[in-house]
Amino acid sequence: MFSFDIVSLYTNIPLAETIQIILDYLYKDRTSPTTIPMADVKKLLQFAIQDSHFLFNGKIYDQKDGVSMGSPLAPLLAQIFLQDFEKKYLPSFKEKGIVYWKRYVDDTFVFLDPKVSAQDIAAQLSQCHPSLKFTCEEEYTTRNKDLSKEGSPKKKFSHKNQYVTEKKDSIEEEKSIPRIALSFLDVLVERQPSIGFQTRKYRKETFTGLLTEWDSFVPKRYKYNAISTMVYRATIICSTYEALHDEFEVIRDLALQNGYPVAFVESIIRRQLNLIYTPRAITPTAPETDTIVLRVPYYEKPSQIYAKRVTAAVAK
């Protein structure tokens, strides 16, 4: 297992080339080209993504190339450029030893032929285009129960019960077994020879454990979602009940450190599990209605009561 990463992708996207890729698709590759003249589309694209400015140290600069960080078009343009890159070069690299290639934005999960060097493949990929530089992270072998690299710095946040089993002798036994792992995005993938793959939630060493605190002056649903999203990700990422249990323990401790009531967290975990394991009743499709948005100041509980009353009144 290997992970390929592209260094500073957004700021290295060649805009002129990407615009040409879009125009070729719209006017050459499609059987029925768009009715808008090509020159007009090109001008619109240039105006939207090339003529960008930014302020630094009291001076205004023009950005000559690359996508502006934070631009809503940045992910789309990066995807268009990289899909064209893969279309041109990936077939030849499959002949050089790439067995499996799945990319998410600038991170790619890769399987290689054992005879091939991952560093060599990354170097060859970097030579395909002057704007792209690939780096490689290789799988590692560890005896740590939490699958962290041996000798890595201690995480800022750690749960005292994380990855702990009931029997102490089983812990020592598992520690003695070498395990192969690789982190990819927020997933920790474990490869077990002759068994297969297992996944669990991954957090970087720099993770501090800070959430929206319970005493924060924000609507309660924000606090609910802070826990609910973590629980949902745990159910999606963790491939075993043991990993899911461990992650729930981490979530409980995270919530406790940020002042959340235990009952509040447990209710969210139960609700998420019920949504997964309890079949939903089939309800008839409701007719489409217009959405009305009311913007009111937030005054904690009075605002929540007001929102419920307005929603109930509209629903009648």
UniProtKB/TrEMBL annotation:
SUPFAM superfamilies: DNA/RNA polymerases. Transmembrane segments: none annotated. Residues 1-189 form the Reverse transcriptase domain. InterPro entries: DNA/RNA_pol_sf, HTH_animal, RT_dom. Pfam families: HTH_animal, RVT_1. It comes from the Eukaryota. This is Reverse transcriptase domain-containing protein. It comes from Rotaria sordida. The lineage of its organism: Eukaryota, Metazoa, Spiralia, Gnathifera, Rotifera.
